[in-house]
TrEMBL record:
Domain of life: Bacteria
InterPro entries: Divisome_Glycosyl_Hydrolase, GH, GHL10
GO MF annotation list: hydrolase activity
Signal peptide: none
Full protein name: Glycoside hydrolase family 10 protein
Keyword tags: Hydrolase, Signal
Residue ranges of every copy of the Glycosyl hydrolase-like domain listed in the record: 1-152
Species this chain originates from: Bacillus wiedmannii
């Protein structure tokens, strides 16, 4: 018996300059006109998996908790007024196609453990700014927040 199921780093691969993720043909085959761009289609695939996995877990054992440990930045404020006051090069929503904010808002997860591996004062993604952002996002929602910290 288990108490929880934890997924670490579930999203599309980190972007590498000059490389494209090879899913264009899959998008063309399975999109069926639902999305006007591949980025929204990718996010929907990830959201659907997270939602359906949570549903399956709860149907089997309602007490089992389900959570994910995503990259620490959802979006930068320059890209979205609800994003964090950061300038991170990689972001969940834009680069990894993981709409972690939607998972919180729609209750697809029981807890979230954002990987905030940067220090206070790190200009692109400061620890304190990101912790405050995640606290505000999970406030008054039935989602537990556990901050992921690196041991290095």
């Amino acid at each position: 018996d288990i108490d929880a199921l934890h997924m670490d780093d579930y999203f599309y691969p980190y972007k590498v300059a000059g490389e494209q993720f090879p899913d264009q043909k899959t998008y063309e085959t399975y999109n069926n006109g639902r999305f006007t761009n591949i980025e929204d289609w990718r996010r929907d695939n990830v959201n659907e998996l997270v939602r359906d996995l949570n549903t399956a877990i709860k149907q089997e054992k309602s007490y089992v908790k389900f959570g994910i440990s995503p990259f620490g930045v959802w979006r930068n404020i320059a890209d979205d007024p609800t994003g964090s006051n950061t300038t991170a090069g990689q972001r969940n929503y834009d680069d990894l196609y993981a709409d972690t904010r939607e998972w919180i808002q729609k209750g697809y997860i029981d807890y979230i453990t954002p990987q905030i591996y940067w220090n206070i004062g790190f200009t692109p993604a400061a620890y304190d700014i990101l912790v405050d952002w995640w606290v505000k996002e999970t406030n008054n929602k039935p989602i537990h927040l556990y901050i992921g910290q690196a041991a290095y």
